[in-house]
């Protein structure tokens, strides 16, 4: 008999050896984004979060563009044409820094750019996508309204034809990037059904007041979109976007990134708790040596790496063209929920220090409360899965 192969050492950062599933290009993408986030975000994020600002967002966008992180999975027009797994790894690393940074990238690429790339005319693609991929133009995505969230079919924003133009009126709410965007993809009710428009934000009648006093996603730009008789030429209409299927397709693409991103926030909180447990001493020894603390760490590691495996599996399915929207709901529902629980458990290990911005835990926990709600609440994803499992529609 041959001697058994020598096992690799146990890696607390990758206890299941998930890195073995990644090819060199995927690892390079992950490491590049991780290094950028460590250099450009982590030294400042506590200050940005405390002040409720994201200073230098335009510069950050250009840097992310130079990394190929904007519209990352799209082909042509200056986009990277990366795989879904590569994009997911980037989302994980960005959200390990802060959910607000990942949201900037998700809204730019998976919502605004994806909508133009998928449903826009060739002229619209040429006009907007190259500068958006470079981070020179920031985009936003206007679907949610002040009184309309989970039921977008009830939207009140409307567009009416006036000669050869469209006239757009309405309000959108909780719009990431809104106040700094150069183009807004806005969904509106028309006589032809729900349609999408690429709206230059310097169009008369368009404004985007920033929303303040947030206790979550504080290091991000969140705005209301106000449209008062915004007159648009006919070519502002996204010709391929008809009905709710179009914006929901964009949301599914963005939710996929959240499946990965939530695990980044969870990983950051877990790592903080693990390091703290090894060094914090009580009763004469590190608290990591006590059974209850070890049980917490073991349970956190289980859910963290199960979530990463789930994200990886969904990414491979997306790359193979086999990922269903219900499976994206599966991933978002599980991973965001488990990420919040990991953050809360990490906070208990850090004790009172867990509420300090010297550590990332409470910041991630606060951010994830928004991530839990946006792009589909828990209840909506439960009902999506419930319908898929039973064949019965509980929405209506």
From TrEMBL:
Presence of the UniProt keyword Transmembrane helix in the record: no
Essential cofactor(s): FAD
Domain Acyl-CoA dehydrogenase/oxidase N-terminal: 24-136
Residue ranges of domain Acyl-CoA oxidase/dehydrogenase middle in the record: 140-230
Leader peptide range in chain numbering: none
InterPro entries linked to this entry: Acyl-CoA_Oxase/DH_mid-dom (IPR006091), Acyl-CoA_Oxase/DH_mid-dom_sf (IPR046373), AcylCo_DH-like_C (IPR036250), AcylCo_DH/oxidase_C (IPR009075), AcylCoA_DH/ox_N (IPR013786), AcylCoA_DH/ox_N_sf (IPR037069), AcylCoA_DH/oxidase_NM_dom_sf (IPR009100), Glutaryl-CoA_DH_mitochondrial (IPR052033)
Keyword annotations: FAD, Flavoprotein, Oxidoreductase, Transit peptide
All residue ranges annotated as the Acyl-CoA dehydrogenase/oxidase C-terminal domain in the record: 242-389
Family that this chain belongs to: Belongs to the acyl-CoA dehydrogenase family.
Name of the protein this chain belongs to: Acyl-CoA dehydrogenase family protein
Organism encoding this protein: Streptomyces lichenis
């Amino acid at each position: 008999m041959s001697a058994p192969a020598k096992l690799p050492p146990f890696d607390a950062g990758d206890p299941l050896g998930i890195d073995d599933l990644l090819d060199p290009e995927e690892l390079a993408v992950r490491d590049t984004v991780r290094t950028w986030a460590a250099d450009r975000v982590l030294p400042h994020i506590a200050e940005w979060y405390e002040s409720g600002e994201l200073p230098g967002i335009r510069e950050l966008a250009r840097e992310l563009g130079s990394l190929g992180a904007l519209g990352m999975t799209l082909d042509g027009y200056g986009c990277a044409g990366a795989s879904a797994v590569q994009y997911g790894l980037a989302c994980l690393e960005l959200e390990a820094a802060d959910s607000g940074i990942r949201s900037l990238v998700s809204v730019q690429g998976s919502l605004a750019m994806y909508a133009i790339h998928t449903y826009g005319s060739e002229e619209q693609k040429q006009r907007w996508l190259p500068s958006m991929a470079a981070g020179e133009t920031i985009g936003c995505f206007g679907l949610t309204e002040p009184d309309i969230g989970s039921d977008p079919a009830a939207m009140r924003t409307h567009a009416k034809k006036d000669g050869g133009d469209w006239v757009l009126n309405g309000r959108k709410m909780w719009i990431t990037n809104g106040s700094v965007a150069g183009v807004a993809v806005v969904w509106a009710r028309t006589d032809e059904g729900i349609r999408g428009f690429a709206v230059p934000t310097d169009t008369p009648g368009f404004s985007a007041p920033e929303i303040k006093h947030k206790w979550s996603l504080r290091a991000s730009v969140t705005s209301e979109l106000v449209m008062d008789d915004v007159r648009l030429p006919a070519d502002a209409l996204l010709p391929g976007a008809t009905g709710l299927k179009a914006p929901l397709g964009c949301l599914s693409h963005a939710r996929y990134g959240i499946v990965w991103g939530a695990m980044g926030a969870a990983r950051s909180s877990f790592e903080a708790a693990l390091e703290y447990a090894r060094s914090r001493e009580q009763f004469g020894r590190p608290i990591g040596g006590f059974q209850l603390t070890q049980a917490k760490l073991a349970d956190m590691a289980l859910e963290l790496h199960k979530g990463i495996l789930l994200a990886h599996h969904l990414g491979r399915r997306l790359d193979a063209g086999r990922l269903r929207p219900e499976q994206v709901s599966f991933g978002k529902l599980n991973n965001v929920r488990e990420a919040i629980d990991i953050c809360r458990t990490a906070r208990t290990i850090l004790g009172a220090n867990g509420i300090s911005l010297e550590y990332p835990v409470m910041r991630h926990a606060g951010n994830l409360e928004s991530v839990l709600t946006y792009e589909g609440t828990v209840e909506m994803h439960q009902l999506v899965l419930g319908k898929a499992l039973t064949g019965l529609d509980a929405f209506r």
